[in-house]
Amino acid sequence: MSILSPENLAVLEKQGIELPSWAFGNSGTRFKVFGTPGTPRDPWEKIADAAQVNQYTALAPAVALHIPWDVVDSYSDLRTYAEDLGVALGTVNSNTFQDDDYKFGALTHEDAAIRRKAIDHHLACIDVMDATGSRDLKIWLAEGSNYPGQADLRGRQDRLQDSLQKIYDRLGDDQRLVLEYKFFEPAFYHTDVPDWGTSYAQVSALGDKAMVCLDTGHHAPGTNIEFIVMQLLRLGKLGSFDFNSRFYADDDLIVGAADPFQLFRILFEVVRGGGLNNPDVAFMLDQCHNVEDKIPGQIRSVLNVQEMTARALLVDREALTAAQKSGDVLAANAVFMDAFYTDVRPALAEWRESRGLAADPMAAYLASGYPQKIAADRVGGVQAGWGA
Ligand code: PSV
Ligand code: MN
Ligand code: MN
């Protein structure tokens, strides 16, 4: 008998993780961008590659777009193209960090004309969402200051609220705004949305259609991220995850690669807090593949999330609660660790086969001929966007 119960398999079957279009482009550090043969040359090819990930894993039913990195003439054509390949167009990410006008801020800028330009960009993103059928507008702001005294911290917070309100007011009934926080970078002294508390305060003032986006790589080292997950779920304001992993800063490495136990702890709080397969909580990746191939990198990522979700589902919640209530510290910890140390990979492979999928999605993709085909067909792949 499988170690995964029919109930747990039914939960896993519903899991969907949105892929970032930019994961399929070339990316790198400020030192060098290494190209990969077969890198997509346009948004259409990024979506075709994302569909491969879904084809072999049945885990990645949507692709997030980034505007203007993914600008096309017709978003409804792009939507049809994606749907024909079995994926939906997901979150639309705005970009106010690559324009000279935004050197000293966008939604927080002192100059009303620059704020207006940044607001209009977000309204244009919502137009894109109308055409793609996307629900979420994700806002990450590269705004802040480098030197004490450089900026009016309070004034910027007030202007941010005002700008966000104007964007929020344009959302359709079924659309949402998710505000992503990050504690540093590109600014180094202060950041205008540095933490979950600031994001929570800002989105709470907007209304029910505004939520917090938690990017796992956007916290100071040592932060207890699962506590934040618990708190945001408790408050009903966890709108989405950007999953990735990090050793040092915002490394954007494959989720679960740097600290699998942290991913387990996060997913346990998701399960415990009712966030799994909850339509209000979007699971997304936000990663870049600098040295590894992109499609296999995304396959590895979604499988990591699936494996760790399966382990989180294995926690014996009854035994855990009993140990917690009786103050049995070591028994409680043992129940938790037992699930973490359980290797679910053979059971997942067997289950995949029972659903007509390859037991080993990575091997199946590598044997499919697709990597060779795109390497031969595509010349001059694009950068992910950061260097663009
Ligand atoms: C920058 O840190 C960032 O990685 C944010 O996490 C966004 O989600 C992403 O870029 C795309 O704009
Ligand atoms: Mn992110
Ligand atoms: Mn980031």
Automatic annotation (TrEMBL):
GO MF annotations, alphabetized: L-rhamnose isomerase activity
InterPro entries: L-rhamnose_isomerase, Rhamnose_iso-rel, Rhamnose_isomerase, Xyl_isomerase-like_sf
Entry's EC annotation: 5.3.1.14
Pfam families: RhaA
Keyword hit for Manganese: yes
Sorted UniProt keywords: Cytoplasm, Isomerase, Manganese, Metal-binding, Rhamnose metabolism
PANTHER family according to UniProt: L-RHAMNOSE ISOMERASE (PTHR30268)
Name of the protein this chain belongs to: L-rhamnose isomerase
Organism of origin: Microbacterium aurugineum
